Sequence to fold (547 residues):
Amino acid sequence: MNRALLLEKELSISKLTRLLRPRSIAVVGASERDGSFGRRLWTAVTGGRFPGNVYPINPRYETFAGRQCYPSVAALPAPADLVAFAVSDDLIESALEEAVAAGCGAAAIFGRAYEHSGDLPSKSERLGAIARAARIPVCGNNCMGFVNFVDGLKVSGNPPPVPDQAGTVGLVSHSGSTWSGLVGNQRQLLYNYAVSAGQEIATTMADYIDYLLDQPETRVIGCVMETVRDPEGFLAAAERADARGIPLVVLKLGRSERGRAMALAHSGALAGSESAYAAVFERRNVVRVTTPDELTDTLELFACPRRPHAPGVGIVTDSGGERELIVDIASDIELPLAELADETIATLNAALDPGMSPVNPVDSYGDGRTLLRESLTALSQDPNVGIVALATNLVHGRPYLHAATAAIESVFQATSKPTLVFGNLHATISRDAATHLRSQGIPVLMGMTALLAMKHLGAWQRHRDMRIETGPPAKPTVPVIDIATLRARSDVALAPKDAFSLLEAYGIPTARSAYVANRQDCIRAAGELGYPVVLKTASAAVLHKSE
Fold:
């Protein structure tokens, strides 16, 4: 990254601090009316540990909640770092202009910015233009706001009731409802910052990722994504995340044709080509998940700092039937179950009851003895095992529960390998037992999505190891086509010459070729290339070139 771009990124992150870690906040539209958004927003902002000044703005009050109330942001004793707007859509444009003129540093806009006229540019676009001209970050519009758990600050009119405790997971979501569910989870998945980004009129997911990468608490970043509005910024952020060893886990919405249409209706987002996202994510080592449960299991596993140094997964169960199910699903998703070393097999043969098979997954329950610790210890010492897992349902109140938790705690303390528990049915897991294990640093995953989470951890680490050995992905050396023009003409296919040039710029091998305009040049080029050759048309009107 050249110096100019580096300075621009540092400036952007500094400005984002005024949004996510403000020193002062103005709540425009603070209201005493019960149930109003202005009342809920004020209560949330002032209800935590935030140490800075919070100013109520409303011309109808002289005092509000025991504080001086100001008629406008211009009347504040000093410009506020952050202005949070609890005003109607018909007032928001002038309110933002007033805040910019007063020198405020950032804004949170929650409303849809809806207008009946259908004018172009739309109100959202006009708001974005105001913010970009002033170079201030904006959370929203059409968002739920954000929670800064580090400083105990909730900038949201509808924050989930969550404990005041900071964690190691960063979250950015285009879906407000999904954001609420993830933030309000009951599995002790703790965040440092959780942002509902909305329509990203001025500040994009890439900007938030960049900011989160620089926070000392961040171990993993989760994203609920409809679209990428800043492709270059996102690619750079993903590259930076991989270089720093901070996993980026994305739940991509709008994968299907109907889903893409709904994304456009929901927030105006162009969800984009499924195959393009898949290719970009794979190349940049972005972990892709398909459900919120898979996302939370994966985030919890990655939030544990341990990383596997062998590809295989070793699993101990207490059920023959559930072992079969684990093997079936592992086969479906291509989860690499470790081939046990001869020494491990001998150790298991000596420990297990007669007739029990020393194979992975290990069914440790034979003649009623609890052999979890012995089995887990053997797997944890196997050089082919990179991840150690106990598969048990942790049924609340069951006497066996204590033996299971004691076994996994003992092994976790004795090894440096990722060590976890997962239930085959998430509804059976004892909350008390899970809370206790998590307090020791042991991930407790909530169902068979745990197998996907373990696959993601292994694949991510293998990509990281390859990066260390071979260096970062190749980048194009020179611009070969005008990408901006290409995006503007999305209905036009790339000319073959441009397509081959683009592939070659990224180091992708292509067949030797030549472009000719007449019979004589064709014969000469064939001789230079060497027979046999294939003749295809380069006409833009014919997509299937062999025809």
Remarks:
- The mean pLDDT is 90.
- The first helix runs from residue 3 to 20.
- The CA atoms of residues 262 and 362 lie 45 Å apart.
